[in-house]
Amino acid sequence: MIEEPFSTGNSIIHCLDPRVKIIVVTLFSVIVAVSSRFLSLLPALGISLFLVVMAKLPIKRVFYRLLLVNGLILFLWFVLPFTYNGQELFAIGPFIATKEGILLASQITIKSNAILLSMIALLSTTPIFSLGHAMGQLYFPDKITHLFLFTFRYIHVIYKEYRRLINAMKMRGFVPRTNIHTYKSYAYLVGMLLVRSYDRAERIHKAMRCRGFNKKYHSLTQFSFKMEDIFCLSLMLALISGLAVLQWVVTT
Amino acid sequence: MGRNNLIINLTDLSFSYSADKPVLDNLSFHLHRGDRIGLVGPNGSGKTTLFHIILGLLKPCSGTVELFGRQAKQEKDFREARKRIGLLFQDPDDQLFSPTVLEDVAFGPLNLGKSTGEAKDIALNTLARLNLYGFADRITYKLSGGEKRLVSLATVLAMDPEVLLLDEPTNGLDEETEERITDILRKLELSYIFISHNFDFLSKTTDRIYAMSKGKISPDEAMAPHSHVHIHKSGTIPHKHIS
What we know:
heterodimer; A: mainly alpha; 2 strands; B: alpha/beta; globular
């Protein structure tokens, strides 16, 4: 099951309007992703750390989530410094590490962690369904919003179906091994899941049509801006603009 | 019964998924206002297919569907009819797709053009009618099997239909939930067709039971549920009969 352990809470961040969170995360990620100066990247990391602290999330679980991404980044550190052309810094046998390579690797590390932390602080503190409705109200295309909501709703059903099939296989003595029989059985399993999901999608669509669905998804949820929302939005927009200034305007 | 009371009028319907095996074979069938009909038949005899054709989810190969005195051919015709005929699907997971129970029950009314406030009221009232207090904010995929069935019934009833088509409503329910559904359905003053393999349930909720076989429904073979009185010694002592 997919759980949303961070989505419940009562910190300031949890109470923010999901629309504010989506806007802030989008702008923040874009600015950080295109920044190339430590002068703006380091404050960005600071801002996202601050957001995580404000959201009062369990530090240990946040750390585990970061670990996943930084595992990938570790590989960059093995490769980038030794393959990038530039000024030699040190050498391990035939491999020469360059200053530019190391700087680039550090930039990527800071960028990914800053973006990821801001998403953990802002997006994972919102229930997925609220995010979907907020997307709808921010005039995201209907198709994307529906896709997002339905994917989340039916991943549970598909997962249960998968468990059922796996259990049925186990009950009949299936033990995965490295042989053709195993690969074939897994292929059948995946194929069966695809076919069943397709059938289910058709049935759901039929059920929705029976209840008068006409390509427009109405929602009961109505968001309203509170004073806190306006304050946080202005503050974050100011900070993000600050990052942009540090990146493009300030001369060193 | 007069023609005005004819709600569903199916004439000479034929349907097949593959050419060699027809599912419906020149089937004709009527439902009048106030009719409470049970439909039995072996698996794969086309009962669900029939429901889906009535609501325009499947197109018949030949034959006509007349709903509320008007022939229904286009999606547009069926769209109107779907507001008045409620269909309960076999699998509640097909029906419940919204995050919370309240939103799912309000989905139909919102589609009918009700305002958010009205839809919410309708949804809450319908839940109360089915004794589903405190369910509004429950998460749909975390409900138990029986709860899912009751909630999906609520989603259909929230649209205030004149006719109900229920596809195996008691399938996989425990006795208590089955009784609860039976009670709810008996109190409804609607016309309906129930597909079920459960004779006990049908005898409590319907007036007539039709059997479907070989793609046809034969009205001559209609069964009327009834009970018999029997007599034996010590009959006044409460007892049970086994087998």
